[in-house]
Amino acid sequence: MKVFYSRVSTQDQNESRQMNNLEGFDYVFTDKCSGSIPLWERPKGSQIKKLIDDEKLTQVEVHSIDRLGRDTLSVLNVWKELTEKGIRIVCRNPNFQNLNEEGKTDVFSELMISILSTMSDFERKMIRERQREGIEKSKIEGKYRGRQVGTKESIEKFLSKPKTKMIIKDLENGYTTQEISFRCRCSFSTIDKVKRTYETSL
Predict the structure, then answer these.
(1) Residues 137-143: what's their mean pLDDT?
(2) SS in 3 state form for 75-130?
(3) Would residue 199 be called left, alpha or beta, if left means φ above 0 and alpha means ψ between -120 and 50 degrees?
(4) Is residue 78 within 8 Å of residue 69, measured between CB atoms?
(5) Element (H or E) spanning 2, and its range?
(6) What are the DSSP calls for 132-171, one per residue?
(7) What amino acid positions are annotated as catalytic residues?
(8) Which CATH class for the 2-112 domain?
(9) Any idea where the domains of the chain sit in the sequence?
(10) Contacts of the segment 31-36: beta carbons below 8 A, 24+ positions apart
(11) What is the layout of strands, in order, in the sheet containing 96-97?
(12) Residues 74, 38: contact at Cβ < 8 Å?
């Protein structure tokens, strides 16, 4: 089963530039939502996920690769997940794919993904560097205090944090620790803490 997928950010945006040559597709899906929403949590993206879970999907085609995620890391996770399931991804702009029509790995696309992976690593390092610089600057200005000695964060407050919620959701969806670490940009120890704290609260 072949699916064409497109996304625009708002209801007012016109998706027509993405919607050319749609003959031969079993489904044509369009989401009108922010790219910050993970693919499988979008209205139409969740329908694609159901086709995957039902083992009915063989190919996903998109106008551009950024339709699959909000950033490089998100795109890589979707790319890896579909490739491991033998589902072909075809991107029109630029023109590349994970698997050819015979189901074999596309060499050019492997190079593209390698470049994207390098960019993703660079992005993570830059984010950590900006965070470090921000903390150092705050320390110099006397604004950074960190948590006061002797204080303890409540379980409720810890579990209500946005990142904690993301980790819990990924744990419930069966993602591995390594996958969650990439998706949520956190350490294995953080994931383990979330898991232990969440299980304790049940």
Answers:
(1) 66
(2) HHHHHHHHHHCCCEEEECCCCEECECCCCCECHHHHHHHHHHHHHHHHHHHHHHHH
(3) alpha
(4) yes
(5) strand 2-8
(6) HHHHHHHHHHT----SPTT----HHHHHTSHHHHHHHHHH
(7) 9
(8) alpha beta
(9) 2-112, 153-202
(10) 31/5, 31/6, 31/7, 32/7, 32/8, 33/7, 33/9, 34/9, 34/70, 35/7, 35/9, 35/66, 35/69, 35/70, 36/70
(11) 27-32, 2-8, 59-62, 88-91, 96-97
(12) yes
Name the nearest CA neighbour of 192 among 74, 202, 77, 178: 178
Structure tokens of 47? 């329908």
Could you say which DSSP state residue 31 is in? E
56: which DSSP letter? -
Tokens representing residue 173 in the block = 């969806």
Check if the beta carbon of residue 77 is closer than 8 Å to that of residue 182: yes
Task: Evaluate whether 163 touches 186 at the Cβ level (below 8 Å).
Answer: yes
Residue 147 sits at φ, ψ, to 5 deg, of -80, 135
Residue partners of 17: CB distance under 8 A and separation at least 6: 63
Q: Report if pTM > 0.90.
A: no
178 vs 181: CA distance, rounded Å = 5
- Average pLDDT for residues 34-52, to the nearest whole number? 91
Statement: residue 178 has pLDDT above 60: yes
Gap between the Cα atoms of 96 and 76, Å rounded: 14
Q: 30 exposed, middle or buried (CB, 10 Å; 0-12, 13-18, 19+)?
A: middle
